[in-house]
Amino acid sequence: MHTYKKKVAMLDVNEAAGQELQVQLNQQYGSEQTQFYKADVSSDQQFTDVFQKILNKFSHIDIFCNNAGIVDEKNWEKTVSINLSGVVRGTYLALDHMKKQNSGNGGVIINVASLAGLGPFPSVPVYTATKYGVVGFTRALAVRTGV
Ligand SMILES: NC(=O)c1ccc[n+]([C@@H]2O[C@H](COP(=O)([O-])OP(=O)(O)OC[C@H]3O[C@@H](n4cnc5c(N)ncnc54)[C@H](O)[C@@H]3O)[C@@H](O)[C@H]2O)c1
């Protein structure tokens, strides 16, 4: 049986936690297997710059997961920027690159939603809206790209 060892790039705003996890994962799976990058997915410039740095180091992306998400009904614009705009941004960054690799057939994009994306959570209407958005965006794009 083959064991495929993939390298992992992690992106998060929490630098302390990211650095710590990088050390732990590299101890467990071998040095240079995991690399942490600090960036805010709600910032077009930061996300795009770090994505380019990741490409420069790894050159190939097999799996791209948009996972960052918050629940903050008070700062609702921030919640939309991270949970929905961040997912759209990350998806297009990954898709643009994946179209060019493996003769245009290469890659998987995973967008993390929630049960709140399938039925309303009355206590968190903005969070619910963003997760409905993630589900709708992902489904529409999957149909369009024929996945
Ligand atoms: N925990 C649950 O019960 C649950 C249920 C359904 C869906 N989800 C979804 O799963 C995902 C992960 O949630 P979790 O529970 O592990 O939360 P978590 O808070 O443990 O992890 C979210 C991570 O996103 C990072 N993050 C926040 N804002 C960011 C930004 N602007 N840019 C980059 N990184 C940022 C945080 O620093 C954190 O490391 C979210 O999308 C969440 O909505 C969680």
Automatic annotation (TrEMBL):
Specify whether Cell membrane is a keyword of the entry: no
- GO MF term (any one): oxidoreductase activity, acting on the CH-OH group of donors, NAD or NADP as acceptor
Q: What sections of the sequence does the record tag as coiled-coil?
A: none
Q: Where is the signal peptide?
A: none
Keyword annotations for this protein, in alphabetical order, are: Oxidoreductase
Q: Transmembrane region positions?
A: none
Spell out the InterPro entries in the cross-references: NAD(P)-bd_dom_sf (IPR036291), Sc_DH/Rdtase_CS (IPR020904), SDR_fam (IPR002347)
Its GO CC terms? cytoplasm
Family membership, please give it: Belongs to the short-chain dehydrogenases/reductases (SDR) family.
For this entry, the protein name equals 15-hydroxyprostaglandin dehydrogenase [NAD(+)]
What is the source species? Bagarius yarrelli (Goonch)
